[in-house]
Design a protein that fits this description.
Layout lengths: L7 E4 L5 E3 L20 H4 L4 E2 L9 H13 L16 E2 L7 E9 L5 E12 L2 E4 L1 H4 L4 E6 L10 E8 L14 E5 L9 E2 L13 E6 L14 E6 L3 H4 L11 E4 L20 E5 L6 E9 L11 E5 L4 H8 L14 E11 H4 L7 E6 L8 E9 L5 E7 L10 E3 L5 E8 L5 E6 L4 E10 L5 E11 H4 L7 E6 L8 E9 L5 E7 L10 E3 L5 E8 L5 E6 L4 E10 L6 E10 H4 L7 E6 L8 E9 L5 E7 L10 E3 L5 E8 L5 E6 L4 E10 L5
Parallel strand pairs: 11-16
Antiparallel strand pairs: 1-2, 1-6, 3-9, 4-13, 5-6, 5-8, 6-7, 7-10, 8-9, 9-10, 12-13, 12-15, 14-17, 15-16, 16-17, 18-25, 19-24, 20-23, 20-25, 21-22, 21-24, 26-33, 27-32, 28-31, 28-33, 29-30, 29-32, 34-41, 35-40, 36-39, 36-41, 37-38, 37-40
């Protein structure tokens, strides 16, 4: 059998991993890897079906079959020092990413399992490498999971191989399509067409993603990892791979001396996508699939080789019955960032809110009947209480937007509807000063549909208080299944200092938190979260606590809001970059997010004194507004929607010395001009 660098196999009756050996020798390439003519005769063919060699899995043994796949998957973990060969947790919307498992039997009659990557290219169709599935007896996939342990296995009905595939030759026809028995209801990735070579000339930065080994001879990753590196020209690859065929292959990675550390795809990443941003950076376009490379994935002496998608685009299109194309016109932005702009500060204008009273705030006629993203803050309250933010032409809701203590300065990110006259109202239970900052507006109620606010659960009422280290399942409703929602998560009367995490119940619990709390404290945070396929969200609590969840609205589709992770972007406690008093931390979110708006959870802990933090795009002046208020030693978080700079960075200014944590929850499509 052909030997590949990117394929990982595990023997079911063996204590170790059997890994395909490496390719050690290489030679010449044609003229230039980025400008290659596609053979029209070859591209007019179709992929060849497997001949129904896949095991027919009926309902009786489906569960046993899938449990075996689960148990025989190589398990691993990711630590700060153990990343996917120079990569990091994936930072772009990746609903098309697919985890592929193929079962085979060796000469001794023992089963073994190959782990690969793949991508959804049309409903019910996954693109991967031919060497991943050739001669497979059974194939199962998981689609759209950042953590492959989440979601459900889907069984393949058949697979189709490029007719030119040669298992004894590197990079020849090494492309396959897996047909899934159940259609995949996700946005497919767009594929590079034969005429799209201008998207990826030599020197273009490309991104590869997968769950493969995180170091040579190391472990695979539960979490989807990404790495970025340049596409190489033919001349730069000439001394690396003798079998390289520029008509079929793309050469990408680092040559000797170009990288300060190892980076690239490794065993277990085979079949995964090599991607570049579309011309307007609205989406990713797949230009290649992981094929082969040096056996030692940490090698700094040669790039990797990928199958060129453009060479087989028409074949794929014909086999799957039509591929989606990148739309010529960009959809209008669902979220338009504003400022941040301070709308009102009662400390300045003297309009302090009396206990039990309501403040009317004129946001502006241009925001009438729209939903806006704001930061609501209360300071110097006369007693413990709450505030509620709502459209002034609606009744005051029975829910709250913010909880506060006497004298405390505290803020919360809220998405609220604006009245037909352009006003919002702030009710305060106690006398307090109110500050309202505007962060942006949703273009229409078709992009974001405000709901209520509606109380979904209050464990103080129904007696379902969450025990320490336990998880509460909350039924939001089947209508919200697989959508993203805006909620206010609150915790009260906790038994100790801790945190809560909110997530879709069909996903693994994230390593990030949504809210930090102190014993006995009532505190809330605005969160945007995905809902499970059955309409549920889960709340994990570190300590015993009562949980309240209020629903504020729903996003129509992943085109309006693309959930990501949650993914931890930075934690200064880990990397030692604690922010000095009066200083600014630059955070690289990723080039993919340049000029887009993102939903994040900003947290500050162990501050040296009472102060505030401001989050903003690094190519903008620091705003006069704040995103978060904190007390010395406190751990506190706030949900924020912020613009990202043109270079993919955001900045965090801290008034006092503090540690900063930033978690990414999702992104909004860019505002097109």
């Amino acid at each position: 059998m052909k030997k590949f660098c990117g394929l990982l196999i595990a023997a079911s009756l063996s204590s170790g991993l059997l890994v395909f050996s490496s390719l050690q020798q290489t030679t010449a390439l044609p003229a230039d890897t980025s400008l290659v003519a596609v053979d029209p005769e070859r591209n007019s063919e179709q992929f060849v079906a497997s001949g129904s060699t896949l095991a027919k899995i009926d309902e009786g043994n489906l569960e046993t079959f899938l449990n075996e796949f689960e148990s025989e998957t190589s398990l691993g973990s990711v630590t700060e020092s153990n990343r996917v060969v120079g990569g990091s947790p994936v930072s772009f919307p990746s609903q098309w990413m697919t985890f592929v498992k193929a079962q085979r039997t060796d000469a001794n009659g023992e089963k073994f399992y190959a782990q690969c990557g793949g991508s959804v290219v049309a409903s019910g169709w996954v693109l991967t490498a031919a060497h991943c599935v050739d001669d497979a007896e059974a194939i199962a996939v998981k689609v759209g999971q950042v953590d492959w342990r989440g979601g459900e296995w889907a069984v393949a009905a058949d697979y189709f191989i490029d007719p030119s595939y040669d298992s004894e030759s590197y990079g020849v026809g090494d492309t396959a399509l897996v047909q899934v028995a159940t259609p995949t209801d996700v946005q497919p990735i767009f594929l590079a067409r034969p005429e799209d070579s201008s998207l990826y000339p030599a020197g273009t930065t490309a991104t590869v993603a997968g769950w493969g080994l995180t170091s040579s001879g190391g472990e695979t990753s539960y979490l989807l990892q990404e790495g970025s590196y340049p596409i190489q020209s033919t001349s730069d690859c000439r001394d690396s791979f003798f079998s390289f065929d520029a008509d079929e292959n793309i050469c990408a990675g680092f040559q000797a001396g170009q990288s300060s550390g190892p980076v690239g795809s490794c065993k277990g990443d085979s079949g995964g996508p090599l991607m570049v941003p579309s011309g307007d950076s609205r989406t990713m376009i797949q230009i290649g699939t992981v094929a082969y490379g040096r056996g030692d994935c940490t090698s700094l002496e040669a790039p990797g080789v990928y199958m060129r998608i453009a060479a087989v685009y028409d074949m794929i299109d014909s086999t799957v019955g039509g591929l989606p194309e990148v739309p010529d016109a960009a959809p209008p932005a669902s979220f338009v960032p504003v400022g941040p702009t301070r709308v009102v500060d009662t400390r300045v204008d003297g309009s302090r809110v009396a206990a039990g009273s309501t403040l009317t705030v004129d946001v502006g006629a241009e925001y009438a009947d729209k939903s806006i993203s704001v930061n609501l803050a209360v300071t110097d309250a006369s007693g413990a209480g709450f505030a509620a933010l709502y459209a002034c032409d609606q009744p005051r809701p029975s829910t709250s937007s913010l909880n506060y203590q006497p004298g405390q300065a505290i803020a919360n990110g809220v998405i609220t509807k604006v009245s037909s006259t352009g006003t919002v109202c702030v009710y305060s239970h106690q006398a307090a000063d109110v500050i309202l900052d505007l962060f942006g507006v949703f273009a229409s109620n078709e992009d974001f549909s405000p709901v209520g606010p509606t109380r979904v659960i209050d464990t103080r009422v129904d007696g379902s208080r969450v025990a320490a280290g336990s998880t509460l399942t909350v039924d939001v409703g089947a209508w919200y299944a697989d959508k993203s929602i805006s909620v206010n998560l609150a915790v009260t009367d906790a038994s100790g200092a801790g945190y809560a995490a909110l997530y879709a119940c069909d996903q693994p619990r994230p390593s990030t938190s949504s809210l930090n709390y102190q014993p006995g404290q009532a505190i809330a945070n605005g969160v945007i979260t995905k809902v499970s396929s059955t309409g549920t969200v889960c709340v994990y609590s570190h300590q015993a606590a009562d949980v309240i969840l209020d629903l504020f609205g729903v996003f129509a589709s992943n085109e309006d809001f693309s959930p990501v992770g949650p993914t931890r972007v930075i934690d200064t406690r880990v990397d030692g970059s604690r922010v000095a008093a009066g200083s600014t931390l630059t955070v690289d979110v990723g080039a993919w997010y340049a000029d887009k708006s993102i939903s994040v959870n900003l947290a500050v802990t162990d501050a040296s004194g009472a102060g505030y933090a401001a989050l903003y795009a690094c190519d903008q002046p620091r705003p006069s507004t704040s995103s978060l208020n904190y007390q010395p030693g406190q751990a506190i978080a706030n949900g924020v929607i912020t613009k990202v700079s043109s270079t993919g960075t955001v900045c965090v200014y801290s008034h006092q010395a503090a540690d900063v944590i930033l978690d990414l929850f999702g992104m909004f499509p860019p505002q097109m001009t």
